Request: fold
Amino acid sequence: MCPGSFDPVTYGHLDIFRRASALFDELVVATGTNISKSRLFDPDERLEMLREACADLPNVTVMGFTGLIVDFCKDIDAHAIVKGLRGGNDYEYELPMAQMNAHLTGVETVFVPTTASLGYVSSSLVKEVASLGGDISAFVPPAVLTRLTKKLAERE
Reply:
C-alpha cells in the first residue's frame, strides 16, 4: 500500500504509483487523515482525484483510511508500505515511522526514490505556486489543475 495525503495528487505521486505497481501484483493507494497537516481538499475530493489519476493502472485500487497505517495494512492484508523519497529530509522523516511500523506489526516499508526530474515537486509547493498565480500544469494532471484552480478561486 502507498499511503499519503495527496492534497493534491501530483505527477511525482503518480511516478511512484506507476513504479510501485510494476513491483507488486496489487497496489492500494490510500489517503488518510493526519491531524498534523491542514488540507485544501476534503477526503472525498482527494479520493476522486486519485481514482481519476490512477484510472490507467489496472492493478491499483484507491481507498481511504483512518487511524494507524499498520492497522489499515492488517485490515487489507498488505505486507508492505511504499513511500516515495525526494531526498535526505524525506528519509530522515520516514525512517523512524518505518521502524515503528515494523516493530508494531512486522509490515515492511519499501522506499522508492523519485525520478530526478520530479524530486522537487510536492503538494505543498504546488499549492503555494498556484495560489500566487504560477503555472503548475507541468506538475499535476489536467483534472487536478482544474479542481485546484477552482478551489483556490473559491477561497478568495
